[in-house]
Amino acid sequence: MALLPILHFPDPRLQKVAAPIEHVDDDVRRLAADMAETMYAAPGIGLAATQVDVHRRLIVIDISETHDQLITLINPRLLGQSPDIQECEEGCLSVPGIFDSVERPAEVEVEALGLDGKSFRIKADGLLAVCIQHEMDHLEGIVFVDHLSRLKRNRIVNKLRKQQQKVP
Ligand code: K1U
Ligand code: ZN
Questions:
Q1: Domain residue extents for the chain
Q2: Least distant ligand from the CA of 67
Q3: What is the pTM of this model?
Q4: Is 140 exposed, middle or buried, given 0-12, 13-18 or 19+ CB atoms closer than 10 A?
């Protein structure tokens, strides 16, 4: 397994729309394992392939404190979402050190392929629903700061550009 480098906002590669995975083969399973290792090491509770510069529709999520409830979603598709909205503080491994509130549907139902290539459905609420929507946004080239006001986003861009200039 390997740790993968994570792209940082405002890298334009984070805006690419990911393509569907046509075959769930050993290459996809290896990428999913590397992404899970990268997510746990960061540490984070989710990671989309877009963030490691692979523009395929693959997500890993584990919101457990024990790191033993890994969910892998291949070609996830939104089946439904609740009309009620929840507001949650979000972070992103591609936007280090920035946390802000985002409003999203409180419950979602998603269909995806698992690592065995079989289709399954997942209904989620709370943090899992937030994380699934955050990661599915990445596959569409959307970063959580795109849900914030232009003023806030510009401040974040300037802060991160200054931080990135400091790195030797
Ligand atoms: O997509 C990502 O970059 C991962 C992101 C997922 C996420 C977090 C919070 C709300 C929505 C989506 C992260 O994991 S940021 C790091 C983080 O939240 C965290 C890290 C360690 C323990 C618990 C949370
Ligand atoms: Zn993110």
A1: 12-166
A2: 1
A3: 0.97
A4: middle
